[in-house]
Amino acid sequence: MSFNIAKESGKKRVVVVGGGFGGLKLANELSGSDFQVILVDKNNYHQFPPLIYQVASAGLEPSSISFPFRKIFSKKKKDVYFRMGEARFIYPDRNILQTSIGKVEYDYLILAAGTTSNFFGNKHIEEEAIPMKTLSEAMGLRNALLSNFERSVTCATEQERRELLNIVVVGGGATGVEIAGALAEMKHYVLPKDYPDMDNNLLQIYLIEATDRLLSGMSMDSSRKAAEFLQEMGVNVCLGKKVLDYQDHEVLLEDGTSVPTRTFIWVSGVRANSIGNIPETSIGRGGRIKVDAFNRVEGLPNVFCIGDQCIMLNGDSEYPNGHPQLAQVAIQQGKLLADNLKRMEAGQELKPFRYRNLGSMATVGRNKAVAEFSKVKTQGWFAWFLWLVVHLRSILGVRNKINVLLNWMWSYLTYDRSFRLIVYARKAKEVVEREKREAEVHWGE
Question: Which of 116, 243, 293, 391 could form a disulfide with 352 if both were Cys (CB 3.0 to 4.6 A apart)?
């Protein structure tokens, strides 16, 4: 396999790795300019991470929060190309990126591959826990939840039933709060209808956070209110509890206690996706790639990094230790970098990145959310309504917006969720064998 894209004469080639918020924004901004743009992503679709938890809790179908890249670019000019592949190595001396589908030359390389779940070196937890960072992981979690509910009504022992109906969520950030709230609503509104012969009080949801509060990126008031909302919904909020391991269907905590469960959800932090041949001196905490105020990677000419994958130290005076890993940071960096690439070609002075904080928010459940803006903090129904509007506007595609809105309206009016299907995907034999061959290949020079 190869890219099979001829370089257009007179145009500089920009290769973008990752089609998340930042990479997609940059590619769209460069469309129709004097650049040839190639977007490389291991998936053939853009996903909307803020709503992945709703797929995991059977609130939305996967296609409602995903959008094919080729459909996005079909209305663009022929200077934007998509290739499905995984970036492996950079050869900066030759301006070459090695991917799982071959080598591609670049004039400018933009790394925007985002993050993956961070297990902080605990390999056993990494093997046993259920992450929820991608669409496929969310679908796997949905299958696990629904399968455990089915097994709980036919299992032989009370101990097994207890393990099947205890759900442990590790991580008190926005994702942890949102999935815990969604599961609590599932417990109160869905299980009594679907499982009338089950005592829904047996379903226990635990949200475990190692620090002393939830939503550490928000104010203390928002943290306290989020905890209050969850406790009112029946979630067991466990603060100051560190998870050490998971053995014999038990989550083991540092204080010597344990929680039996067969649904062990890990949303405790992220780590930047890595790529080969980047100097160790250019890697910061959490595996994030160090960049200057113009998102240039330290030590690599013509290589830039944006979004969650990068860390800008001392580049933005208001964020000397790096920006928060939020969608708005990636979008703003993608837009500015596209403008700066055009300025470079025109011989103009580059503009340094300055993050404009548009606020943060997290939803807990129906009519329950917290939201913070520059001068306004709100909680409850109004924050929940703002959350709905902001996220609905951010979803790509008119069809997707309508699907999500209709699903939300249906759920609000009926207290029901319509996508409680257990579906296990099976890859074609030819695809599985090809992926094995690719994984065995040594991607050297």
Answer: 293
Task: Give CA–CA dist 305/312, Å, rounded.
Answer: 10
CATH number for domain 12-117+271-346, candidates 2.60.40.10, 2.30.30.370, 3.50.50.60, 3.10.580.10: 3.50.50.60
Residues 64-122 have pLDDT tens digits of: 999 999 998 886 567 899 999 999 999 999 999 999 999 999 999 999 999 999 999 89
**How much is the average pLDDT of 327-338?**
96
299: how many CB neighbours lie within 10 A of its CB? 12
| Residue 441 pLDDT greater than 60, yes or no | no
pLDDT, residue 8, reads: 80
Backbone angles phi, psi at 227, to 5 degrees: -65, -40
Rg over CA atoms, the chain: 23
> Which residues, at least 6 apart from 109, have a Cβ–Cβ distance to it below 8 Å?
14, 15, 17, 90, 95, 97, 302, 303, 304
Q: What are the sequence ranges of the domains in the chain? A: 12-117+271-346, 123-268
DSSP string, 113-143: --EEE--TT-HHHHHHSEE-SSHHHHHHHHH
Residues 279-315 have pLDDT tens digits of: 999 999 999 999 999 999 988 989 999 999 999 988 7
**What fold characterizes domain 123-268?**
FAD/NAD(P)-binding domain (3.50.50)
Closest C-alpha among 347, 325, 333 to residue 293:
333
Is residue 323 within 8 A of residue 293, CB to CB? The reply is no
> Exposed/middle/buried for 65, CB within 10 Å: 0-12, 13-18, 19+?
buried
What pLDDT score does 2 carry? 65
pLDDT tens digit sequence for 262-278:
999 999 989 999 999 89
Judge whether 389 and 333 are in contact, CB under 8 Å.
no
The 10s digit of each residue's pLDDT in 393-421 is: 889 888 888 988 888 888 877 777 666 77
